[in-house]
Structure to design on (888 residues):
């Protein structure tokens, strides 16, 4: 059977593992126009009704969050469940959760770029966008946690006549710098990478408004050789600069806890352990978002099963790292011979917050184990559910760290039990509204896949260099034959 | 398309370099062992010092072996193409896990001197050590070491044997098999290397503990491995071996990884130090106190400057990474720094306040290095130096960094 007679639509599985050839990263199509049409098509079609429904729901949730924040500001921090001894509750948990989510985007855009992982091209724009939105959500929580939030700008070292400065020895201030740098660099990286694609949208614009807006955003991009040359160098340099950020941001977040002397917080493995957890949760969030988006906009030939399988593998790997960190902490708590340390960990596993601890262990360590199986890694429903469970687990990880350690520290007379209020819960739920609002706007108005980059890993761009997809025809044929036998 | 060297005309056996490698290995081993033994038997407390210094060199070459094993499994699990031409050497380095198991015998025999917790009677009067006795006791220590070396030895053997078999069978299924084994292999590796670091190095001060310590030793391992690789390749190419298959592009990538993991080492070292310094709890700071009082303060600062800052500035340069001999020199320098790092981890436990660096340390290093080189040479000479049956060989040979 020759490749031409095969119904090429049959080819949607490129997860076959043949080391003699690199699997194609764009399926069924070799022409660049397909990528342009598909990705631009998402933005150019008339807005689907379902988008309006989703957007309205997201906006409503965002409204709920701002209503809760207004109530918080007008009434006071007492509307939350925080109390002595648990002075850090949902707000810090949510902050760490959202900052962590962002890390997958930076890992994909910077580290996987430096490691020449070409499959990243289909998902990096998406993940970078998610990074920005997650950081926006994260930034809200410390801001509203300061109590008198009208002086939240005191977080920054602003010169003033009172000579009042933030405490430079406090990791909370380091956070301001770490997250600030992170947001800036991520935004620059995301925007800069988008310029050629924005120019494509400009060139395809059918209305003057589109032409004008995309024209302004694409900064006069003309796709000249010189433009590309500088673009690629700038991209490489930004990737190199963003790489340490993947590690530094969540390391600094972990310092918030680890520099203290509270048992369960003060432990040296926190920086790399938080980074691994952040990447873990970030990839889970990418999968949670990418599977429905891919399905809805029929992007399965660009964000292929192989991309999703690779992400499952990364979730498995980072989940195992997190599991290793849990067990190391547990072991050293015993090994240290420190009664407080051992108590803290036994208390986590069997104390009043044992339910949260076991949700965390189940979701973060047990659930990813299904990804040892290729069938599970390529089953979208399983993957999607697992990714949500991992997000739940990672939220609970931060909850366990923050709450269990604070609720029972050195002095049993001051022990307590933290209960979030409905305001806590609604504020957190509302932050998802904000996240999805931004995400839906992104999907509607910006190129959600880096077209220029995807084209760069298609066989036509490789000029005979060995790379992904140069054996495209063979794969089609093999799959076709299998299809024929059925 | 770039001109790709033809594998069939490449010199890919160790033979041209064999006399040199055997000669250097044997001479180094002889000088090292003779010197170390001579000094140990003539100096006061000589045998104790020999043992302490031996542990440093042992930990360094164990690090090299583990770094190589990690590299091999990482290449398989990521389906790496660029590294095929350098992978056989890493596979062979990893096989020295068996040699390291033998070299662990002096550590076990010298347990009495090296590990305070092994004195059961003394430990029985120390409430902290009593609590740890279930873990830190001579029998369990030896059992654990046995398990670690069994894991490393079997993993290294599996990847080396399968890869060698592929040289003749050219069977791509073997690549898939190694890829599948690399996942569970890395899990076993992470667990065993983590605990081996606690056992061999952290328990030198049985009161002290640090959850990141395993990661620290892992960082040392990977840095040592990437520091050694360019030197091995350059000395092969000097004799005309692998002179076309391994190109400047491969050196460039090895250099990048050396740079990256050295920064990773600094990150881990900083995290550990900063958190303990900031927490300022005596039971943790006492370990660093030993290392920042007396002469040791200078060693600590030297590590910061010569293990991190200077190599950072040197290796960040593209020019250095693309000059194989310069990279090999930098790598050799990094090996010395990794040795100094381990020296700083081990020796202050026995000699607080004074560094007392001496010839015996040099001889110890030479002795272990010589024996290690000989074992490596004997295994390397039996097979091709390239995983020539690997289906991604062409991709590796045509590889160029963007």
């Amino acid at each position: 059977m020759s490749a031409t007679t095969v119904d090429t639509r049959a080819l949607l599985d490129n997860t076959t593992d043949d080391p003699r050839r690199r699997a194609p990263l764009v399926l069924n199509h070799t022409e660049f126009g397909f990528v342009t049409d598909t990705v631009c098509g998402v933005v150019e079609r008339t807005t689907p009704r379902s988008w309006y429904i989703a957007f309205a729901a997201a906006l409503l949730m965002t409204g709920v969050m701002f209503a809760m924040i207004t109530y918080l500001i007008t009434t006071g921090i007492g509307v939350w469940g925080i109390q002595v001894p648990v002075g850090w509750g949902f707000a810090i948990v949510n902050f760490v959760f959202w900052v962590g989510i962002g890390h997958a985007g930076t890992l994909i855009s910077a580290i996987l770029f430096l490691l020449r992982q070409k499959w990243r091209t289909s998902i990096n724009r998406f993940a970078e966008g998610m990074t920005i939105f997650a950081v926006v959500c994260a930034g809200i929580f410390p801001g509203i946690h300061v109590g008198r939030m009208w002086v939240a700008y005191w977080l920054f070292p602003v010169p003033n006549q009172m000579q009042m400065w933030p405490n430079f020895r406090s990791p909370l201030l380091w956070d301001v710098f770490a997250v600030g740098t992170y947001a800036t660099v991520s935004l620059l990286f995301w925007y800069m990478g988008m310029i050629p694609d924005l120019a494509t949208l400009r060139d395809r614009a059918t209305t003057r408004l589109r032409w004008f807006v995309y024209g302004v955003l694409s900064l006069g991009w003309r796709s000249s050789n010189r433009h590309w040359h500088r673009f690629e160098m700038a991209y490489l340099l930004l990737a190199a600069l963003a790489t340490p950020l993947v590690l530094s941001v969540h390391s600094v977040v972990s310092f918030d806890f680890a520099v203290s002397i509270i048992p369960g917080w003060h432990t040296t493995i926190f920086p790399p352990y938080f980074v691994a957890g952040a990447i873990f949760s970030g990839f889970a969030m990418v999968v949670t978002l990418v599977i429905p988006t891919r399905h809805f906009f029929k992007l399965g030939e660009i964000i292929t099963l192989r991309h999703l399988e690779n992400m499952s593998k990364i979730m498995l790997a980072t989940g195992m790292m997190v599991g290793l960190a849990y067990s190391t902490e547990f072991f050293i708590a015993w090994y240290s011979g420190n009664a407080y340390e051992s108590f803290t960990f036994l208390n986590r596993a069997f104390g009043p917050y044992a339910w949260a601890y076991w949700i965390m262990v189940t979701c973060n360590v047990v659930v990813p184990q299904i990804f040892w199986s290729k069938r599970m890694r390529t089953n979208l429903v399983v993957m999607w559910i697992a990714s949500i469970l991992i997000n739940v687990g990672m939220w609970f990880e931060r909850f366990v760290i923050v709450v269990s350690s604070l609720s029972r520290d050195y002095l049993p007379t001051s022990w307590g039990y933290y209960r979030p209020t409905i305001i806590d819960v609604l504020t957190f739920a509302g932050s998802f509204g904000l996240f999805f609002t931004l995400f839906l706007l992104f999907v509607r108005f910006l190129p959600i896949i880096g077209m220029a980059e995807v084209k760069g890993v298609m066989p036509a761009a490789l000029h005979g260099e060995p790379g992904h997809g140069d054996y495209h025809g063979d794969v089609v044929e093999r799959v076709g034959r299998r299809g024929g036998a059925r | 398309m770039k001109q790709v060297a033809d594998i069939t005309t490449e010199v890919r056996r160790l033979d041209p370099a064999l006399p040199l490698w055997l000669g250097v290995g044997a001479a180094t081993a002889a000088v090292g062992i003779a010197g170390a033994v001579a000094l140990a038997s003539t100096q006061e407390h000589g045998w104790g010092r020999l043992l302490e210094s031996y542990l440093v060199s042992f930990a360094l070459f164990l690090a090299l072996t583990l770094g190589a094993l990690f590299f091999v499994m990482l290449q398989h699990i990521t389906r790496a193409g660029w590294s095929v031409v350098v992978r056989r050497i890493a596979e062979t380095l990893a096989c020295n896990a068996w040699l390291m198991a033998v070299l662990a015998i002096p550590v076990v025999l010298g347990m009495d001197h090296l590990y305070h917790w092994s004195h059961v009677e003394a430990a029985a009067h120390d409430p902290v050590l009593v609590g740890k006795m279930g873990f830190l006791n001579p029998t369990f220590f030896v059992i654990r070491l046995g398990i670690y070396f069994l894991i490393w030895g079997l993993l290294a053997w599996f990847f080396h044997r399968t890869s060698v078999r592929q040289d003749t069978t050219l069977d791509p299924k073997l690549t898939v098999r190694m890829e599948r084994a690399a996942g569970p292999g890395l899990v076993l590796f992470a667990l065993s290397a983590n605990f081996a670091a606690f056992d061999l190095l952290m328990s030198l001060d049985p009161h002290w503990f640090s959850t990141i310590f395993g990661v620290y030793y892992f960082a040392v391992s990977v840095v040592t491995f990437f520091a050694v690789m360019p030197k091995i390749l350059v000395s092969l190419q000097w004799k005309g071996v692998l002179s076309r298959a391994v190109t400047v592009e491969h050196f460039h990538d090895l250099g990048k990884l050396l740079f990256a993991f050295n920064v990773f080492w600094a990150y881990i070292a900083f995290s550990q130090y900063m958190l303990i310094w900031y927490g300022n709890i005596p039971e943790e700071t006492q370990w660093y106190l030993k290392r920042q009082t007396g002469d040791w303060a200078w060693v600590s600062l030297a590590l910061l400057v010569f293990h991190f800052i200077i190599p950072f500035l040197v290796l960040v340069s593209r020019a250095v990474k693309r000059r194989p001999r310069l990279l090999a020199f930098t790598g050799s320098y990094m090996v010395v720094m990794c040795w100094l790092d381990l020296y700083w981890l081990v020796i202050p436990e026995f000699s607080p306040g004074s560094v007392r660096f001496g010839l015996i340390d040099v001889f110890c290093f030479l002795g272990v290095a010589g024996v290690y080189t000989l074992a490596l040479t004997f295994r390397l000479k039996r097979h091709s130096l390239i995983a020539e049956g690997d289906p991604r060989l062409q991709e590796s040979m045509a590889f160029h960094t963007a």
